[in-house]
Here is the input.
Amino acid sequence: MVLAGLARGITGVRPIWQGCAPSDRQRIFFANHCSHGDFILLSSSLPPRERQRTRAVAGADYWKRNKLRNILAKDLLNTVLVDRNWVERSEDPMVVMLDALQEGSSLIVFPEGTRNMTEEPLLRFRSGLYNLAVARPDVELIPCWIENMSRVLPKGTFLPVPLLCRVVFGSPIALEPNEDRKEFLQRARQSLLDLSPEHQKALNHG
Amino acid sequence: MAETVWLFLGLLGVLTFASAIATMLTWKSRRTAEVLPSTLVNLNSRIKAWWIMIGGISVAFLFGKNGVIFLFAFVSFASLREYVTLTHTRRGDHRIIIGMFLVIIPIQYYLLWIEWYGLYSIFVPVYCFLAMPALTAISGDTERFLERVSEQQWGIMLSVYCISHVPALLTLSIPGFQGKGLLLIAFLIATVQGSDVLQYVFGKLFGKHKVAPKISPSKTWEGLIGGIVSASLLGAALTWLTPFSVLQAGLMAGLACIMGFFGGLVASAIKRDRGVKDWGHMIEGHGGMLDRADSLIFAAPVFFHIVRYFWAA
Here is the structure.
């Protein structure tokens, strides 16, 4: 609550419900990832009821590395921690995420798998999103483009710069019959890219 | 101060009058049309925002000097945030930008608070002007260096230095006008913002010939001239807030109004260059803080220095 207020105070974040409206349905929000602030920004732009049941999926290998991070992620932010390390992992990330969905939570996932530090607008998507779409076709998948957060709190810095941010929510996508993993991930990635300011600008002028 | 009370009663009257007219227009148009025309929707939200802005300014005035300095420090913060959002920044600029918010704004307003004219009038144009590019160079990223550095300078000059000249009026000691600096600020804000409104009204009513069609379709010669003349009359009518004579007050208001017009024009040019219509969305119906403050940015420093040269001891 405090963090959400803080995030809004600093970034004056504005949600743009372009392709869907806030609702009580269970949802998986998937977003671009550039900064630690992403999840807080996204959840603070949700209406309070939806925010309360929405949990972010984060990398356990990163957030369990020391005590402080662990407390932050587990107790304060109530994140769903999944292990990204294939070899040494103890729990299957899919099981952990599906458990959270089973409890009725909505999820925030970053399908790029890590924070994007490149000049590319969006990295290649990992397959977790596809697996979720297969396992829970009843849950809406909503693309969310987070704008400017990479400038507010870039990787490796801990003081945020106050800049105005927006979160654009797109239209839900679903797995189509006969669609394979690669095609689906490609389409999901494109649906997210379509919300980016560069693309929207091209639309307005074109 | 009796003057302050009169001023706010007057403002209350004007706003109530405006709200009454807007309500009447809305009511009339509701009967004939299903959907309200967008001009009317915008007018309604603009008037509502004015109530909130006047409320905020009144509260700041109640707290006197501290309140006004705090209010304008906040205006600087919000303006700078809108400005920097639209500029091109790179990862190497992160520390400089934090410094703009967390170091430059507090120092500039602290210097104002201790009324150190010798430093607050040169802190930004001398020290920040030189320190910011030096620090940017140390960060080692030369990509679009000149562009980044100039944009930072502009941001600080506009949103911090120029805006801080409004509360700076409090630091002037004018013979026979001691302790009444707040009234002079009220005069400046009322004439500049009033002229914005009057230009808007005259432009909507009689506007035909555009001043700079490439930059702003809403700025017309009819609006400009009508705005300047009526704002000068408004200024003359508000002489009792100032150490000026009636003629001087009219001239000062006219000057503030012309500067305000240039401020709006420059702000429009920047917005057009960046492909946006408004600076932000902070103030409903008006856009962002800078959409409201752009005229004050240009008017305040000139107003301040003329008063200082001709009237201050």
